[in-house]
From TrEMBL:
The keyword Hydrolase applies. This is SNF2-related protein. Residues 738-903 form the Helicase C-terminal domain. The keyword Isomerase does not apply. Keywords: Hydrolase. It holds the Pfam family Helicase_C. The lineage of its organism: Bacteria, Bacillati, Bacillota, Bacilli, Bacillales. Residues 447-611 form the Helicase ATP-binding domain.
Amino acid sequence: MTQFQTEGSRTYYLKISRGDDFRIQAVNEAGNRIPPEMWKSYLYFLDKASFYGLTARIDGLDLLLTPADFVRLFQQKPHHYVAFNGQTAADEAWLALAGKVADSLNDPALWDHVSVDGDDILVDAAYGDAEIQSFLADTIRHQLKSKGLAPAQLPFIQHFVQQAGWDGLPAAEDYVLAAQLSEPDNDAFWSFKTVLRSKRGSSYWSPTKRRMDEPIDKALPDKWRPSAQDIKDKQSLMLSLCPSVEYYEDDRFYHAEWTDAQVLEFLRNDAEILQAFSIEVSIPSWLKAVQESKVRVKANVHSPIKKASVVGLDQIIRFDWQFSLNGHELSMQDFQQLVSENKEFIRIGNEWVRVDSNLLMQLRKMIEEAEDADWTIKDMLFQNVPEIMLDEGIEEDDPLVEFHLNKSLRSLLDKLLDKRDLPPTPIPENLHTELRPYQKTGFDYLVFMREEGFGLCLADDMGLGKTVQLIAYLLHVHGKKPAQPSLIICPTSVLGNWQKELERFGPDLKVVTHYGPARPKGENFQKFLDTEKPDVVLSTYGIASSDAEEIQRLQWTSITLDEAQNIKNMYTKQSRTIRKFRGEHHIALTGTPIENRLSELWSIFDFINKGYLYRIKQFQENFMIPIERDDSEEHKEKLRQRIQPFLLRRTKKDPDLQLNLPEKQEQLEYCPLTPEQAALYEGLVQDTVQKMETLTGFEKKGLVLKMLSKLKQLCNHPSLYLKEPYTTADEILPRSQKLERIVTLAGEIAERGEQCLIFTQYIGMGHLLQQAINELYGHEVPFLTGSMPKNQRDSLVAAFQEGKFPIFILSLKAGGTGLNLTAATHVLHADRWWNPAVENQATDRAYRIGQTQFVHVHKFVTIGTIEEKIDSLLTQKQSMSEQFIQSSQWMTELSDSELKELFTYNL
């Protein structure tokens, strides 16, 4: 450090790296890094632009420079006793490049080679090498940024910079050139002209009307006449910065008459550019403070029908329009005149206000459409006036359009907004379950929206019974024997679940499944429906997309999308195809209407109520960009208001629902076998049944237990049965609907901020789940097995309870007893244990004393296999002694015919 305190020449060796900014480090001859505070004053000693280094940016031991700063500082005259050299040849090359770029920036010919393409600044190949071109483009971009200008404004300043440089007009000794905008007197035009003032004075001079057309040298007062040519040249340069002014090189002072629209354009563009180059702009003081006028429209909305009971969303409504401007009431005639005059600035009383003529035109168009087209309540909901969705008691900050609804219309909209006091619909007598109060509300809402002609999204949390609410709705609708069936489209992994739930809760509904290679296609599909006359057709997203031609021919009684987030990507063929299907009523079921982006919500609404959230481009401008980029709370609230009538969402944390929910809900999740699993299953059964015929007693029991384990592994995944190594999630998931469903469900639970336990009897299954969840969702999932040391086991349990990871896999034997895992709100049983007590003990790791939340238990069962049959047998044997079903040993006592029936795979 002492060598920098002695007199004499000093040399700093600079290490230079380039990102968006330049990072400069300085070292001495010994290679020691020197803090920028010790040497930056020598670099900035002539730099007025940064107030001699006062605005310099320092990051640790680095000095940060924009490309423009870098060029400016390293092409200035060096300090008289401090030298800056590059530490390496590469650093020296950067310093040399700064000099070359500085020379280029001072070269008027440069601007003949510069152009703009969107936000990109381009220097063409005819000017220097690629490195120079890139550096120049970056430097120009930073110069613009430092002046608060955008690349799009570069064409308007190129001529000026070419002639005068970036620092603006050179100062004159005794005058200042300025631009002046003056308000209209008696006529409708504004005045824009070039003016002068003395450097020490504040008043502006311009030629009188009599001398306005005289040459500059004659129009000027004697004191400024020697500067006539200089004033003419500066005026030409100043006006070149104004996009509103055509190229001007006249020998007279500039003067023009402007309309309101031209003034507004000047204020938006020209004034900003002039001020960026320190050119004085004079505008009326009131114009600087002028506020956007508050044009407001109030409409008293009423229905000609007096009886509230018959008012519906299709009822034609009438409006009484009222207008005001900054609190001054206007008649309809005054409003029409205001629109017709197309002025931007008008005087009301003693104040000037600015009006948005485009907005006035839009308001007039909306009013004319409402009057001419016989608007209904439904039409109002689909207009771009979401304020109608507000309750009377809610005050938005000065809404543009206020709708005051009479009592009957407000009552109707309240039903949409609050889902309260909906017209009660009798629960179908053939619904084989009881609806909880909130489920009855969902059922009433489904029926109400159908009758009013609106689609909807039922977005209740997982486990709250979306399925049973829809089944009640289908029983109600098809109890009236409509001509066409209803269509339900779901993921393949829950197709079996839908079959079982419909059979369980709505056995009177005739259900057919449109799935599998033998399904009817083309003309045979319609013939099949005509013959079978089903109430409900079940299909999957993949099949519905591939068989779109057949499905699109029908006008379905209703179309329901289960797990509707499957159409979230609006650009996929599957999503585009399904959104075109035609139904009298469209319903979306999903617990996650938005997983990542708002475009997913748009896609769902495009299915349920096409056009309500506008075209996607307008939705992006109105909501996606302000919310996803700017996190705008105002736009979030507007979107919430807009979707509220058509989305019913209840969560398990809703205090109104907790009182009505059981503390624990158990649910069977049915999954079909894949063709690969089915073929292996049948082959194994046939081979084993033949062997059983040759065995007796103990040998037969051993074979049954061995086969039992193989079948259960096969139901989980064929790779467990075939003992294949793990490959990738993309390869293993399509081979087992059960594995895919468990992985997806666990991922969804974690994404919602909840925690779950997954129990399995097989180490291999645990590893498949571990790796697939990690690969697809990025969660590190611990797997607790019997071989895990106690201290590690205790550590994992504590970490799970503290919420440090959302998914915990446990082997049934190792994790089935003795653990307290009440942080979990979901328990997933990947494979069934034949003793219900063992399963219940595992479930009770989460559902035990200390658990304050609702616990949802999912038991996965493969359809048509031994898993489904054992589940049915266990249900039948509930009245038998606990000893009888203490283990799987009871199955070995079955007869050969009973065993054969038990093992046989039923499609």
